[in-house]
Design brief:
Helix content: 40-55%
Biased composition (Acidic residues): 432-443
Shape: extended
Number of helices: 14
Biased composition (Basic and acidic residues): 470-479
Number of strands: 11
Subcellular location: Cytoplasm
Distance between the termini: 62 Å
Low-confidence stretches: 438-479
Keywords: Cell cycle, Cell division, Chaperone, Cytoplasm, Isomerase, Rotamase
Structural class: alpha+beta
Order of helices and strands: EEHHHEEEHEEEHEEHHHHHHHHEH
Protein name: Trigger factor
């Protein structure tokens, strides 16, 4: 077999492959055997039909087509290996010549990973937010804890902001009650903004048994986006009572004996959370600075596939779980479809560039992934997915996604190398030491990256690794 590589552009090549006919013989024999098992010819036992009879009855062309289809993947793979290429996605194959008993020639166009030169990154310098915890931050943290221990009790008075009301709702559009526009026994906290616009004003001042009507734009349902006349009836008003901020509360809400000890612990937790946020901010800024130093051409088809996958995941997974569609999501975000598409393209481009650059760094720095590192990463991914480690591991293995996880860990290590080489200062001019930084759970903060799953690693598997990790960081920060 002979092969030649033609570079069509920095991210696409055309392979021209010539295969002597004798190299097709194993596939040709397999084709005859397969056809033997599928057809019946009078006078011959099944599976014992001579090749010349198959040629006469079904045509030599049918056998050649079967043989070539069976052999092409191997010849293509051999040509890729010979050319030392890193293909992305499936090739576009065209059989240009097929001479029986002489020669098979075909071409294959395919996207490839571009050649990337990693420049000296030791001069990267970024500025991050300083770690500061104020008394107001502690007050807010303790107040949030206090609200978790609030109690409610019915009151015989008009509802006011902060009260909890139990209400019945009925929505009409053009004078007709909507099929999905009736709800009873809804519990709502006045001022929370969790229901329809205008409801706070409508129920404020009403006692149990009181009714009101207001107009609001529906945020969901069959008449989403339409103006509706909404009737609301209050069946119960409850007042929230917060516990006193004293040592008794500290003993109720924590393992501490005094309020002072509880506040001190809150300060430590907030400091750890802010340090974790600082480390994450440093990683993100260092990554952005690194990407600015590297020119990364992106295959057009790969980019479009990534955009489509991200959009599909958003529409059918993330928004679907929240009961939203893309149109309502854009309304909530106050974005046009054009703005959304532009942002999605920018995110996809950054994801692909990030993966290409970090993968090249893995090769340049000769980074490897140990079993313990992979196991720890799997445990974290399982936790963020809501699955048990065993379930997640089984899903990864069955889906053939182990290389994907290895890649994630390796890219994290590559980014860590760059972060370690960079100079990180806070906005007060102080040098930030990120070595062995721990988050509030006690886990060492590791470098993470916004990776993109290319044709080699399906984006569905990551549904956005980045979103999943971002949510995990947010959960940790909030805790």
């Amino acid at each position: 077999m002979k092969s030649a590589v033609e570079n069509l552009n920095p991210t696409r090549v055309r392979l021209t492959v010539e295969v002597p006919f004798e190299e097709l013989k194993p596939s040709l024999d397999a084709a005859y055997k397969k056809i033997n098992q599928q057809v019946t010819v009078p006078g011959f036992r099944k599976g014992k039909i001579p090749a010349r009879i198959i040629d006469q009855r079904f045509g030599r062309g049918a056998v050649l087509e079967e043989a070539v289809n069976e052999a092409l993947p191997k010849f293509y793979t051999d040509a890729v290996n010979e050319g030392e290429l890193n293909p992305l996605g499936q090739p576009e194959v065209d059989i240009t010549e097929l001479k029986d008993n002489e020669l098979l020639t075909f071409t294959a166009e395919v996207d490839i990973r571009p050649a990337i030169e990693i420049p000296d990154y030791s001069g990267i310098e970024v500025t991050v937010d300083a770690v500061e915890v104020s008394d107001e931050d502690i007050d807010k943290s303790v107040e949030q804890l206090r609200e978790r221990f609030a109690t409610t009790s019915p009151v015989e008075r008009a509802a006011a902001e902060g009260d909890i009301v139990v209400i019945d709702l009925e929505a009409k559009v053009d004078g007709e009650v909507l099929e999905d526009g009736v709800a009873t026994g809804v519990t709502y906290t006045i001022g929370s903004g969790e229901l329809l616009d205008g409801i706070d004003e409508a129920v404020t001042g009403l006692e149990a048994g009181g009714e009101a009507t207001f107009t609001s734009e529906l945020k969901g349902g069959s008449a989403q986006g339409k103006e509706a006349e909404v009737s609301v009836k209050v069946s119960e008003v409850k007042a929230r009572e917060l516990p006193e901020l004293d040592d008794d509360f500290a003993q109720l809400a924590s393992e501490f004996d005094t309020l002072e000890e509880l506040r001190a612990d809150s300060r430590k937790r907030l400091e750890r959370s802010k340090k974790f946020e600082q480390a994450t901010q440093a990683q993100e800024k260092v990554l952005d600075a690194l990407l600015e130093l590297v020119e990364v051409p992106i295959p057009e088809k790969l980019l479009q596939d990534e955009i489509n996958t991200r959009k599909h995941n958003l529409e059918h997974h993330q928004l679907g779980q929240m009961g939203l569609n893309l149109e309502s999501y854009l309304q909530m975000q106050d974005k046009t479809a054009e703005e959304f598409d532009a942002e999605l393209k920018e995110q996809a481009e950054k994801g692909i560039r990030t993966q290409f650059v970090l993968d090249e760094l893995v090769n340049k720095e000769q980074l490897s992934v140990g079993q313990e590192e992979l196991t720890e990463h799997l445990m974290r991914r399982a936790q963020s997915s809501g699955m048990s480690p065993d379930q997640f591991a089984q899903a990864v293995v069955e889906g053939g996604q182990v290389p994907m996880l290895v890649g994630e860990v390796a890219r994290g290590k590559a980014l860590a190398v760059v972060v370690e080489a960079a100079k990180v200062v806070d906005d007060k001019g102080e040098t930030v030491d990120l070595d062995d930084e721990e988050d509030e759970t006690g886990e060492t903060v590791e470098a993470t990256s916004e990776t993109s799953e290319t044709a080699e690693e399906p984006a569905a598997a990551e549904a956005a690794e980045a979103p999943a990790e971002s949510e995990e960081k947010q959960d940790k920060a909030e805790s």
